[in-house]
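Reference record
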Amino acid sequence: MARVKGGPQGHRRHKKLLKMNEGYHATRRKLYRRANEAMLASLWYAFRDRRVRKRELRKLWITRINAAARLNGISYSRLIAGLRKQQVNLNRKMLADVAVRDQQAFSKIAELAKSA
């Protein structure tokens, strides 16, 4: 059977992939096979790390809320439990934002949670 090289379409496909790998170092940008391996790995990391980013941001929000809560004399867990009892529906992202930007408002929220 004759060897099929792919012609112009194969060349276009290789050029497209090598363009995706601009900024990579050495053979990961120059050679098609190594560039393809690097591209597949990078796409997998991007897919995985979109989920990891969500985890890390939630950890950061909880840390910020805990620090602000302790400045107001209440622990994180008691703050969250108190807000639930008072039926205050603020998610952790918003609570962390209030804790960083507006300490007076957060202290009022903490007082509300303490009273529960």
Notes: The two ends are 80 Å apart (CA to CA).
